[in-house]
Amino acid sequence: MMVKIVFRDREFELPGGITILQALKMLDIPSQTVIPVRGDELIPEDEPLMDGEEIELISVISGG
Amino acid sequence: MRCRKCRAKASVHMRQHRLALCKEHYLEWIPEQTEKVIKRYSMFYPHQRILVAVSGGKDSLSLWDILTRLGYQAEGLYIDLGIDGSNQYSKRSRASAEDFARQRGLKLHIIDVKREYGHSMVDMAMETPRGRKKVCSLCGLLKRYVMNRFCIENAYDVLATGHNLDDEAATLLGNTLEWSTGYLIRQGPVLPASEGLAKKVKPLFKFYEKQVASYAFLRRISYITEDCPYAEGATSLFYKDVLNRLEEERPALKLSFYLNFLRAKEEGIFSAGEHTWLERLQRCPSCGQPTTSPTRCAFCLLIERAGQARRQHVN
Questions:
Q1: Do B236 and B174 form a contact (C-beta atoms < 8 A)?
Q2: CB A60 to CB B13 under 8 A?
Q3: For residues A50 and A1, is the Cβ–Cβ distance under 8 A?
Q4: Which of B46, B83, B123, B231 has the fewest C-beta atoms under 10 angstroms from its C-beta?
Q5: pTM of the predicted structure, to 2 decimals
């Protein structure tokens, strides 16, 4: 089983059991640029992700 | 990870502060920290009238939310720049600002730039050399002019903007790389009022962009998440990316970069230049707003050039 991560209309599949911080490193996404959410909850960066769950990364960067 | 205050499961972990909090305590902590900043920098007081510059994004709406929760008299100002693009940016951001105000019974003022000045920002950009080169620079010029004028003409005590630490650190990095001393002198969380210029404050300047986004998410503030169609490739976004990659290796680097700059300013490294800049301010002979230009202000020149370009198209 894998964890599904959705970011900017793209989907990534990563192995279960890793933390958000590990997932972001694997995807080369700086942790400061996104908030990881599950439904209406924020997910702490050190929390292990469970097999089969879906996480959304919301971009926090704005400006121009 | 556990909340430092109640030991419940933490929702937010702020490595730069070595602090983890649950949702309930995070939603208390952000306004508490904002209030401390407002007092520490003497930004404004409870009896004063505050104008919040509202873009419909997470920062300005969170700021407005926090100020009203703290009991301040804060009204909003939304500037409709007429940016359409594929995502109808102005329409959607305006709707976010209007919905926010309506749901909370707050007063929102709206200035439609095209209706007020005869040209939308995009029209002006296409009809002037400055705008064709860089639309974003025009956006900043327009917003600063309109916000200041509205604030002064309606006798607000202070203009508050939702700039966060990432905004400020990116601007500081750009100004430092260019050694733009004129901009460095004026950069800070408080720009005092002077003849014709409203006092400007940035109460969220110590919060990382991620902290503000976390607040907006947990507070269920509905904001526009799409980017401005003209922001792609903007230098400020590049600087933010550079700083975020540095922060990844050195937590709290953005915070120390900006706070140490403020400390150096307080110690007087720019004090002589600050005096010179204030002395150069004079009234624009056309609109009466302050400017450092020896002739008319940049805004009036922009409007005139856009008008000339339009007349040439017609003829």
A1: yes
A2: no
A3: no
A4: B46
A5: 0.93
Could you tell me if residue B34 is inside a domain? no
Tell me the three state secondary structure of residue A2: strand
Q: What is the ipTM of this complex?
A: 0.95
Contact A33, A61 (CB under 8 A): yes
| Nearest residue, CB atoms, B57 vs list A37, A41, A62 | A62
Which residues of chain A lie closer than 8 angstroms to B23, CB-CB?
42
CATH number of the domain bearing residue B118? 3.40.50.620
Residues in chain B: 315
Q: pLDDT tens across B262-301, in order?
A: 999 999 888 766 667 777 889 999 999 999 888 899 999 9
Tokens found for residue B22: 């649950």
* Mean pLDDT by groups of 10 residues along chain A of 64 residues: 92 94 94 94 91 94 76
Residues 176-215 of B with CB under 8 A from A: 208-210, 212-214
3-state SS, residue B106: coil
A32 touching chain B per CB within 8 A: yes
Nearest beta carbon to residue B209 from set A44, A45, A61: A61
| Cβ atoms of B278 and B194 closer than 8 Å | yes
Question: Across the interface, do A64 and B13 touch by the CB < 8 Å criterion?
Answer: no
A64 part of a folded domain = no
